[in-house]
Amino acid sequence: MLTVDRVTVTYDRTPAVRDASLEIADGEVLALLGPSGSGKSTLLRAIAGLEPATGAVRWDGDDLTGVPVHRRGFGLVFQDGQLFPHRDVAGNIAFGPRMQGMPPADRERRVAELLDLVGLTGYERRPVTELSGGEAQRVALARALAPRPRLLLLDEPLSGLDAELRESLALDLVGVLRRAKTTTLLVTHDQEEAFTLADRLAVLDEGSVRQSGDVVDVWRAPADERVARFLGVTTVLPGEIIDDRVRCAFGSADVPWCPAVAASSTGAASSTGAASSTGAAGSTGAAVTVGLRPHALRVAADGVPGEVVARARRRDHTRVTVDVSATVPEVSTVEAVATMSEAVRPGDEVRLALDPDGVAIVG
Ligand SMILES: Nc1ncnc2c1ncn2[C@@H]1O[C@H](COP(=O)(O)OP(=O)(O)OP(=O)(O)O)[C@@H](O)[C@H]1O
């Protein structure tokens, strides 16, 4: 298990990482997510031993302060793979095992095993200068995994690739990490990548870890508005928990996962009701802050009325900005979605229905 205990990294007296603490259990993938400049790479480099830091980095309780990079047993993959250009694919992958003193026949077997794992069987003799960007990143991953690191550190491993390749390689990477069962820290600024690959998330902002936890828990219950907005929430408004449901100006939704649901329960068994009825007699409403992602508000036949002020086509839906100030004065405009087939234009009157899937409870 990796333990990062109050790590601080300072450049020219300005802390780039402040008092950061996190843990990664064996076999788990943790995504370190945060905006550009939030300190993600700096923290990864401190864990690797590439950056002087205060605080402690421990593996299974052993303090690694003073342990040089190559003796930590960690594998590293950066954005641009950084393969050895003068070695072929096999030469790159066999490098770590050779340094560990593995005999040639075993090395050859290990190289073949890893090429199979990353889907590049038969690539042994290819010069790395002739690989595509995606192939090069696969080789970089195979090279990092070859010495069987106890921790894999991935710093934006897919961000140099185009969108389509990125998406397919992210799915491949999930398979590779699951099969290799390697404990992994993944640095990314891309939420989708974090969601595809990680078991847990840590959100870094201005050098501090704002929140960490199970991916879905953090997604549904961001710790504050800043984290919520970073995780795709575009509308924040007041709400109330009544029974198992959250109610806000756009309607109500089942949120059985919300801690405030348990807190507001009067103890009476409350089955998950069907309709958005008002609270049962005796139930008390607990005030909460509701966060809505664009897909929480869908253009529909019924719902809160508003006027479309902007529209942008996306790959699989249409994103609309809707002025709802006449009906929901606390939020003047909201981001919402329409299907591709709905011909929605600026100036159109639409209605917005609440989709529970895009609802978060903030704080
Ligand atoms: N070697 C350095 N010397 C001085 N300042 C640095 C150095 N490396 C990083 N910084 C500063 O530390 C802060 C955190 O940088 P870092 O690269 O860790 O952020 P990041 O979250 O990884 O960003 P990005 O997603 O853009 O890569 C930034 O303000 C950056 O300018």
UniProtKB/TrEMBL annotation:
UniProt keyword list: ATP-binding, Cell membrane, Ion transport, Iron, Iron transport, Membrane, Nucleotide-binding, Transport
Show the GO MF annotations: ABC-type ferric iron transporter activity; ABC-type quaternary ammonium compound transporting activity; ATP binding; ATP hydrolysis activity
Gene3D superfamilies, alphabetically?
P-loop containing nucleotide triphosphate hydrolases
E.C. number(s) listed in UniProt: 7.6.2.9
The enzyme's main class, written as a single word, is: translocase
An example GO CC term for this entry is:
ATP-binding cassette (ABC) transporter complex
Q: What SMART domains does UniProt report for this protein, alphabetically? A: AAA (SM00382)
Kindly give the InterPro entries that the UniProt entry links to this protein.
AAA+_ATPase (IPR003593), ABC_SmlMolc_Importer (IPR050093), ABC_transporter-like_ATP-bd (IPR003439), ABC_transporter-like_CS (IPR017871), ABC_transpr_FbpC (IPR015853), Mo/tungstate-bd_C_term_dom (IPR008995), P-loop_NTPase (IPR027417), Transp-assoc_OB_typ2 (IPR013611)
Sequence ranges assigned to domain ABC transporter in this UniProt record: 2-231
What is this protein's record name? ABC-type quaternary amine transporter
The organism of origin for this protein:
Prauserella isguenensis
